[in-house]
Here is the input.
Amino acid sequence: MGQYVPPIRDMQFVMHEMFNCESVFKAMPTMQDIDADTVNQILEEGGKFCSEVLQPINAVGDSEGCTLNKADHTLKTPTGFKEAYQQYVEAGWASLACDPHYGGQGLPVTVNQAFYEMMNSANQAWTMYPGLTHGAYDALHAHGTQELKDAYLPKLTSGEWTGTMCLTEPHCGTDLGMLRSKAEPQADGSYKITGAKIFISSGEHDMAENIIHLVLARLPDAPQGTKGISLFLVPKFIPNADGSIGARNPIFCGAIEHKMGIHGNSTCQMNLDGASGWMIGEPNRGLAAMFVMMNAARLGVGMQGLGLTEVAYQNAVVYAKDRIQSRALTGPKAPEKQADPIIVHPDVRKMLLTTRAYAEGGRMLAIWTALELDKELSHPDEAVRKVSADNVALATPIVKAFLTDNAWEATSHCMQVYGGHGYIAEWGMEQYVRDSRINMIYEGTNTIQSLDLLGRKVLGDGGAKLMRFGKLVRELCEAESGNEAMKEFIEPLADLGDKVSKLTMEIGGKAMANPDEVGAAAVDYLRVVGHFYFAYFFARAAKLALEKQDSGDKFYKAKLHTARFYFQKMLPETASHIRKARAGASSLMAMEEDLF
Amino acid sequence: MGQYVPPIRDMQFVMHEMFNCESVFKAMPTMQDIDADTVNQILEEGGKFCSEVLQPINAVGDSEGCTLNKADHTLKTPTGFKEAYQQYVEAGWASLACDPHYGGQGLPVTVNQAFYEMMNSANQAWTMYPGLTHGAYDALHAHGTQELKDAYLPKLTSGEWTGTMCLTEPHCGTDLGMLRSKAEPQADGSYKITGAKIFISSGEHDMAENIIHLVLARLPDAPQGTKGISLFLVPKFIPNADGSIGARNPIFCGAIEHKMGIHGNSTCQMNLDGASGWMIGEPNRGLAAMFVMMNAARLGVGMQGLGLTEVAYQNAVVYAKDRIQSRALTGPKAPEKQADPIIVHPDVRKMLLTTRAYAEGGRMLAIWTALELDKELSHPDEAVRKVSADNVALATPIVKAFLTDNAWEATSHCMQVYGGHGYIAEWGMEQYVRDSRINMIYEGTNTIQSLDLLGRKVLGDGGAKLMRFGKLVRELCEAESGNEAMKEFIEPLADLGDKVSKLTMEIGGKAMANPDEVGAAAVDYLRVVGHFYFAYFFARAAKLALEKQDSGDKFYKAKLHTARFYFQKMLPETASHIRKARAGASSLMAMEEDLF
Here is the structure.
């Protein structure tokens, strides 16, 4: 069974020492009084909730799963899930980053993201219930009428009600333009919505008294394709005027999916049979409103990958120090025992350090992105908001895809550290592997993320956003050019920067002649740029660690080791991806379909 | 639910067109009359058994799993498993490659391996029941007394009885030197064996009337470590003199493991409580006898990886041609439909072609190795046997580790092709992913394989075995040096050959000063050498395909496309691994244990 200790020290390093988040918050009128102590206290308390309440019900969630009673459409979540959720709501965790106007605490997204990393480490399946609620909150907050906001946001903020995103239908996932659910306008301004949705996470459950579904559907006169989709709020129970629970709306879970992992989350087929709904945003502009949810959700999925990477690492390290098996290649290291702990073996260390570097690198990238998001949302200076919005836009597909690909690789490495025990359910590691796999698929597959990055975010503005990040890198490289101790980090970083520029220009040129060149290169390109971010952040971390390595705090020594490992043993992955990206589309597209 | 069509055409290409196996068989006294027609007939009939009998019970095996009745120690396998096994025995499939002296058909290992690829595609969990039997058969055949052989080999040959390998104990897997099970000599020459074994595949079941366990245990006076381990035959039921089933031997399944995959196979904790056993081989030389099983088993695990790669490919292709979603980046390809089939998208093709190339490359390597094994076992010329033994020794860890790592990557790619549906059990793809994961762990983890390759097989003889393979590569490169059409294959192959030589010498040099350099480089090294084999075989396949591409048989066009894809988009993986292998041990070993 897994264990989990919140990585507070590393979070503090990233937030306070690397990015000085206190000073960022101070620049924003709504966050003036959020100092380092406040942040630390939330991390401590939040971490305690994760390790003491959520982590102990992670395995039972996996083994029990959810149970649908088709007779009365109720769905039972695993033992302990409901009670944990009550604690979550009562402690006020749901409202951390919500608008004070609706009862929220108005804390930075950054703090909330760190909390989500911990929740996902402890229990991804459970965390998806409040996680989806945030998405619904965001879309409603940004695009809802004041009436809808007043009726629903307070309850979503408190967590008394949860939310979902109802997008996918059996015949359409990536290509939402094909969706068929229908919305018939009613005399009272509401709509009757009919259709079948699938893969609806947290679609039905017994943890909260109401569920607020955000549903994509078409108006009767809607144009075909993505420009004919509208967004509707469809509550499970229609609230009465006083906010109490009213009539049951005909939106029912028809079946729950049997999945590879995240068994504790109810992934539902939802049938709408003339369910009452209210429009959010403009008619036929539902996708735009939905993208507010989607972008937040993509960052959230990145936190799922990061959370699983961290918890897998922690457990594998404990196992590797405890399990004795064979002697070190260089001779016995624990001669008093029958064999050495397996952490003496180079490849065991390689798997552990790879996972560790993915966790630390992911944390730096995720927190940096969250700070940029805070600035985008709350900074008083419009120019700052604009730059931050660009930074977030560029980083979002990387946070989503890079961190989740890394988590799949990392959890599998950690499983390998356990040998045969890794494959056995009771040890807990194989659940992390299975849970992590969905993160590469949902909220836009990682291929879609890579197309978003290369096609839209990079080539779409002639590389302007990427060059802005490149400027940060160049500034660091120039500032450290005379620092001999930093050479081992700065040289490969600068070299990769040159290669990213050249690669981007090369693909951009080829793409003008053949758009398939974007699709052929995008996945490899995303991994290269992901490493570019990681290398930049690890170089910054190494700089601090070099300065403080003799402070007596072993944390800095470990940071330096991890950074060195990253540069020597992981960054070389880019060599292959650059070659593959440059190899172009021809060998992919030449084969006729019937030859497959 | 999955589907499966045996890849007979590609098997025939590899066996007949590439390796001319008929002429290999003709050189061996025991296989004179095994011509291409015989081989083809077995592939056809065997393939039918796999697709019609084994494939339909693959999903039910996963969902039902095995059930242990602790009261009477019986174990129920999933619905249909027992009946399928009866058909298998009655049709004589068990005895294909067994010694005619004990009722076997004396067919080449090569043919049997091809059959195993198909069985594993259809149902890996089921195939492990007969698969383990082969291992027990091999060890008994090689090291058993004539009396034991006469008593047990006919029933193992026919498949009426199955076999197991009982090695692992809770505290020891890789490091068998620590094992504790005890064997007490008895006056009648038998032994009473007591101990606890775990992870025993096919350890108990209801598919055959008897189970023959091969058990590692220590004699009372045995030296510590690996030199004090003996091998014993421990039948579930002790046969009477007439071969009928006699007394139940106290070797019982205490529990079945709950695993990530291969649910249809009973992975058992086995308790021996003074069970009667008979020694196989010499006292304290049990590991040597066991390694006969182990080497065969490692090739067998490679076939598991290959089988899953092939079946995942087939299903993903069907899905990718059927599923319509979005338009091609270059404009509509199926304008009559609402969207294009997803096979138009470059990255979908990349995932499919990667899997296809892993399957085709794996098949060439596996069949080549099997032919070398046939020569090692049956060739009349001792010099030929010696060379083939070296070839098999070098290739075995690559077949095991490279093919199973590839299968993990490939099944995951194929799952990604399905999008969200890939994560849902009913589509069948996620089972392949889960099943494939064990293959990287058991029969020696893939890290152990890489150490075996680099430490023992390559550096252990100063690179002699590797240079012998390198000579084959050089001969091909020289023969094709004037062939312009082959340039795209020969140049990167020759280049990789040079790099492998240099890398090997560099690591060899560093390893003399620090043995950890072997452990630090081994996993990356294995992938480089794995690609070296694949590149050689794909170049040979491309040569044939170039010659026959205008024959009207589209098979050759597809082969050429796949080879080109492999060289352009997959071989570049070696660039990273070479860099990582060269980066050495320091960044792995420098971090003190308490800093992890």
Summary: DSSP finds 18 helices and eleven strands in chain A. The longest strand of chain A covers residues 267-280. Residues 286-322 of chain A form the longest helix (37 residues).
